[in-house]
């Protein structure tokens, strides 16, 4: 049987920090409220495009795997916030990397995008259609937010993470998965006017409506991720105690704690970095995975469990058996172009636009 071993990993976090205290200067909120309800202390604001974040994460993953971009057969960019819909964001990554041999597509499953992408990429490798696939989760969510809505503006941030999977005979990579969607609740996390449903000339205030029912999402997230993790463990014949590290979607610390409790797992077995970055949607899982590796928390041949949920409401879980190597083959020295502005400066015009817009909220 062919497996799809994870041989490279990389992340890209834009440098501009937007802390809870920064946010409390532009809206009626506080570090105390945000941190106690969500676990978030700060998030990053990107000064470059979503595909630029994705490309740097990808370059770092390629170096880690010891590969050239020309060796890639496929690029899957999991994102809900591509710079352009036509053409797709993955083609910008292909162009920037020079990955001329790779088939490319974007995959939108919102925050579950990376777990979906890893599943699709693994299937492509297992059928023999491709040998090496780059899977990226990248988002530039700060471009979508309504900065006058404190219930959502405080939750999200920008960033990217990437992995490379390669065909292998050794049992490794994604060994069990369960994907699904709670479509009947698709309205509870919904940006109805970001797409062709939007009346082009009817609303020109530049805002996107952000329908968000936090408590309902919370309940359904816990249920969806709980069912999916139970299913993958059963599929692989693995008990929760055998899981060495849980790498969950980082939407809310309380959701992560509830998931860990359901699995009877101590929090020491859970990778949590939501405090620094907030919810970066499809990017949270690959960023958390990279940081777990950087911190030496992933051991050779260990079992990792990831679970996520997102708009749709999509949900999914992935059981990964790590391979033999937990260190990069090489490092990539590339950096983003320097950013001259602070986080608050980067969002200033959007904040002014949101505050001025004559729209009931
Ligand atoms: N600062 C201060 N007060 C706030 C803020 C804020 N940023 N946001 C809301 N409040 C107020 C509300 O107005 C409300 O005030 P009221 O009682 O006077 O009416 C009060 O705080 C409580 O609001 P709730 O919405 O009930 O707060 P809750 O405890 O449910 O926490 C939260 C909100 C954090 C969003 C929570 O519902 C949640 O985590 N939901 C899960 C969904 C999630 O995390 N989604 C992330 C994105 S989706 C995804 O990843 C796919």
UniProtKB/TrEMBL annotation:
The keyword Transferase is annotated on this UniProt entry: yes
Catalytic activity: malonyl-[ACP] + acetyl-CoA + H(+) = 3-oxobutanoyl-[ACP] + CO2 + CoA
Pfam families, sorted: ACP_syn_III, ACP_syn_III_C
Entry keywords, A to Z: Acyltransferase, Cytoplasm, Fatty acid biosynthesis, Fatty acid metabolism, Lipid biosynthesis, Lipid metabolism, Multifunctional enzyme, Transferase
Domain Beta-ketoacyl-[acyl-carrier-protein] synthase III N-terminal: 105-183
Compartment annotation: Cytoplasm
E.C. number: 2.3.1.180
Top enzyme class: transferase
InterPro entries registered for this protein in UniProt: ACP_syn_III_C (IPR013747), ACP_syn_III_N (IPR013751), FabH (IPR004655), Thiolase-like (IPR016039)
Limits of the Beta-ketoacyl-[acyl-carrier-protein] synthase III C-terminal domain: 233-322
Renumbered residue ranges of the record's region ACP-binding: 250-254
Protein's pathway: Lipid metabolism; fatty acid biosynthesis
Active site: 111, 249, 279
Functional description taken from the UniProt entry: Catalyzes the condensation reaction of fatty acid synthesis by the addition to an acyl acceptor of two carbons from malonyl-ACP. Catalyzes the first condensation reaction which initiates fatty acid synthesis and may therefore play a role in governing the total rate of fatty acid production. Possesses both acetoacetyl-ACP synthase and acetyl transacylase activities. Its substrate specificity determines the biosynthesis of branched-chain and/or straight-chain of fatty acids.
Complex and partners: Homodimer.
HAMAP family reported for this sequence: FabH (MF_01815)
Family of the protein in this entry: Belongs to the thiolase-like superfamily. FabH family.
Domain notes: The last Arg residue of the ACP-binding site is essential for the weak association between ACP/AcpP and FabH.
Protein name: Beta-ketoacyl-[acyl-carrier-protein] synthase III
């Amino acid at each position: 049987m062919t497996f799809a071993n994870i041989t490279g990993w990389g992340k890209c976090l834009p440098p501009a920090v937007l802390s809870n205290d920064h946010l409390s200067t532009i809206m009626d909120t506080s570090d105390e409220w945000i941190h106690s309800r969500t676990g978030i202390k700060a998030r990053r604001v990107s000064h470059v495009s979503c595909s630029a974040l994705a490309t740097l994460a990808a370059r770092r993953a390629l170096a880690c795997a010891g590969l050239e971009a020309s060796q890639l057969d496929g690029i899957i960019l999991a994102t809900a916030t591509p710079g352009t819909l036509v053409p797709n964001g993955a083609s910008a990554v292909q162009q920037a990397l020079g990955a001329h041999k790779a088939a490319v597509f974007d995959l939108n499953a919102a925050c579950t995008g990376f777990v979906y992408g890893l599943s699709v990429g693994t299937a492509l490798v297992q059928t023999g259609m491709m040998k090496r696939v780059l899977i990226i989760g990248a988002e530039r969510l700060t471009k979508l937010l309504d900065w006058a809505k404190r219930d959502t503006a405080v939750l999200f941030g920008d960033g990217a993470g990437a992995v490379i999977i390669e065909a292998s005979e050794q049992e490794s990579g994604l060994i069990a998965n369960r994907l699904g969607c709670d479509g009947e609740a698709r309205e509870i996390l919904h940006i109805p006017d970001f797409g062709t449903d939007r009346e082009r000339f009817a609303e020109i205030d530049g805002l996107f409506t952000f329908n968000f029912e936090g408590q309902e999402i919370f309940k359904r997230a816990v249920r969806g991720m709980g069912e999916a993790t139970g299913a993958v463990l059963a599929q692989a014949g693995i008990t929760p105690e055998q899981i060495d590290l849980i790498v969950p979607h980082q939407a809310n610390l309380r959701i992560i704690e509830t998931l860990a409790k359901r699995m009877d797992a101590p929090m020491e077995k859970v990778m949590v970095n939501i405090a620094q970055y907030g919810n970066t949607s499809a990017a949270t899982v690959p960023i958390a995975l990279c940081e777990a590796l950087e911190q030496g928390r992933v051991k050779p041949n260990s079992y990792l469990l990831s679970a996520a949920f997102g708009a749709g409401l999509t949900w999914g879980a992935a059981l990964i058996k790590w391979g033999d190597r937990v260190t990069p083959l090489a490092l990539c020295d590339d950096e983003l172009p320097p950013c001259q502005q602070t986080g608050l400066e980067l969002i200033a015009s959007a904040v002014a636009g949101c505050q001025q817009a004559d729209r009931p909220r």
